[in-house]
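Supplementary notes for students who missed Thursday's class. We covered one full example, reproduced here. Read the sequence, then the structure, then the short commentary at the end.
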Amino acid sequence: MNELVEAADEKQLNKTIARYGRVDLLCIDALGYMELDRHGAELLFQVLTEREEKDSVAIASSESFGGWTKTFTDPRLCAAIVGRLTFNGTIIETGTDSYRLAQTRARAEQNTAG
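Structure (token representation):
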């Protein structure tokens, strides 16, 4: 998001969005972790629109779609982003347990057992 905001400030937004549109797979990790202001959310929406029905986007989020209203505070913009991401998409739910926490616990158990 920072790169998009800086590109917008430097009048390079179209070039930056086009670059994100050319990658085979765009991965966004921890979406929903931090609140995005309206401007940041609009920039993300532009990137997703550029990629729509062309190339893949993978999103990792510990927040369900219902909780994204905390990240994208404008309900209409939130609905539009969810719509862009889910149209012809595949949703894979892995549960609510943290993979990192599970790995840490497994290492701790190995250390105490060994």
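Commentary. Residues 28 and 78 are 16 Å apart (CA to CA). The chain has one domain: 2-113. If anything here is unclear, bring it to office hours.
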